[in-house]
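IS4 family transposase
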Amino acid sequence: MVNQEQASLSWLDEEINSSVFSDRRHASRFKSLMQKLWRGMGNSLPFSCQDRAATKAAYRFLSSDRIDEQHLLLGHSEATCQRIHALEDENILLLQDTTTFGYHRDNPDAVGFAGSHIAGLVKTGNDTGINCGILMHSSLAVTTSGLPLGLTAVKFWTRKKFKGTNALKRKINPTRVPIEEKESYRWLENLRQSTALLQCPERCVHIGDRESDIYELYCLASELNTHFLVRTCVNRLAENTTMEEEMKNVPSDHRGHHRILLRNDKESAREIILSIRWKTLTLHPPIGKAKQYPDLQLTAIIATEEGPKNNNARVEWKLLTDLPVTSLVEATEKLEWYSHRWKIETFHKVMKSGCQAERSRLGSAERLTNLLCCYCILSWRIFWLTMLSREMPAAPAELAFSETEIKILDTMVKDTTQVMSSYTLEKYTIKLAQLGGYMGNKNKHPPGNIVIWRGLRRLNEIQTGWEMVTGRCG
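Predicted structure tokens:
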């Protein structure tokens, strides 16, 4: 490929050029591999590389013991940091979550143990690959409106050394085990790494689900002068009783109601009313660690759906935060921030469904981990493109599309009443989605990640033919 491909993938340069390798040949190989994976998104390595030499070079690169996630994601992390600092004083939400990539292997020991069950794999006969997989814990930075800015920390591991942990819990009280010896230590590591990367702890709000309800995490956030918003599952010691007892006696000026539109998995929506309570409490550390950690003054927020269930799961959120909450407006703001936590699950879905990360046939954990790092960058780009058109519909199309891509979209998808005539980002995102099967009806929701990655696959294939016809490829 010549200059036209380089121009169309200029966004990729911004994400990887700052990555540093001990061998300069690795930098050029990384760039070449990322271009091929983007152009062949969702396909196998041999399909994306197209020839034997390029495929073998990709295998050697992914197998190198001088390459790991820190090298591969360094450029993307720095680009993420720049995007965050460009927003000046706006708060940044750092969403943490864990996901599992399951694989079917005849020799699962080469990859590692991932758990007793991996979604998507069905045990048949003497199948021993059911527990084969890699776990990834990531921190995704998003704006308070939900625009993904990039990854700030990623951890990969297998559970070989954690196998049998459930049996161990019958003999040892988990609360007395040092946090450094637990798998949940990854939550603290990501918090520390993200804070060190961004260098603006006062602007960061680390958000996690019930798995992140860890007292040590609260103490670390206080030590680093950063903030957190966590869904709690532990009835912690508070004041002279427990948190649940304290929240039963909330004064009337710390109560309120908030109306929201709740959308389920089938995209049907229903309007519900949340009864909200909030109260600042003095929380005590677990009894087994009372001498190690101090008391903390945190705010508990409980939001409960009012009225009958109507055959739907009743909404109830119990949140803990170190941020001040003095009014209903501030309480609902924290609920809205926490609602963005599901975006990291969407990001993981893009990796698995859009990039087809679980279909790789690589045979070792090291190779798979390096490949997953590549998919992290591509998945962020897909997710960013989907959300950007919702946040900035009137922005110029050149913000996300190259000149060639705009010409192809204009040729392939004609303007309609749903696709405006102006050269906006919204227009060309809808055209891209229509390549992926988006109908574009007025009553439809904005294009989602599925139609965007389908559209990108078709666009990349069409662009290759376009460049061959116009003499820009070869």
